[in-house]
Amino acid sequence: MPVNPTVRSRLEAQGFCGLDDAALQQLAPWLRWSPAIGTLVMVIGVAFQSSAVLWLLAATTLVGVLLPSHPFDLLYNHGVRYLTRTPPLPKQGPQRRFASGLATVWLIATAWAFHIGSDTVGFALGIPLIVVAALVSTTHFCIPSLIFNTVFSRRIEPASVGGT
Question: Taking a C-beta distance cutoff of 8 angstroms, is the pair 57, 100 a contact?
């Protein structure tokens, strides 16, 4: 069964290029895994105005910038996929690493606002962050990847198939 062209386009915009329909059909739902977990943790951190939760998530997203796979992808690749009998997630391309970098900075700013007691600023930063993360978690539409692709005016090399 062919993959929905909109889903393919949105995933390719995130750097997941070169996947055939069969692989993409299996992986598309799981490519929401890391954004969905991140969104859930953001909601908890913002709802409880917890700078500690947001700083921990910022550290996790920073690792996602520095490594070829996001730490949440590693949880999937080394655990969940064996339960779901699905292939490993591909390594991240520069678009998704850029998104992780942007999220890291945004999370630090949001955490800092809550830390210093500026709850209004914390919510003003945290709620849009949650919306952006929820958008990619539910629709595969990644605003930071769109920004990356616009700034660099091209699609960068595809993420390799087969994760770590």
Answer: no
Q: Please tell me the distance from the alpha carbon of residue 134 to that of residue 10, in angstroms, as a whole number.
A: 15
Rounded Cα gap, residues 26 and 110, in angstroms: 35
| Spatial contact of 70 and 64, defined as CB atoms under 8 Å apart | yes
Amino acid occupying residue 145: S
Cα distance between residue 110 and residue 121, in whole Å: 7
Q: How many other β-carbons are positioned within 10 Å of the β-carbon of residue 17?
A: 18
Which among 81, 66, 85, 65 is positioned nearest to 31, based on CA atoms? Answer: 81
Q: From the CB of residue 102, how many other CB atoms can be counted at a distance below 10 Å?
A: 19
Q: What is the pLDDT of residues 27-71, one digit of tens each?
A: 999 999 999 999 999 999 999 999 999 999 999 999 999 999 999
Taking the C-alpha atoms of residue 111 and residue 51, their distance in angstroms, rounded to an integer, is 4
Q: What is the DSSP letter of 70?
A: -
Q: How many whole angstroms separate alpha carbon 138 and alpha carbon 160?
A: 23
For residue 77, count other CB atoms closer than 10 A to its CB: 22
pLDDT single digits (tens) 106-117: 999 999 999 999
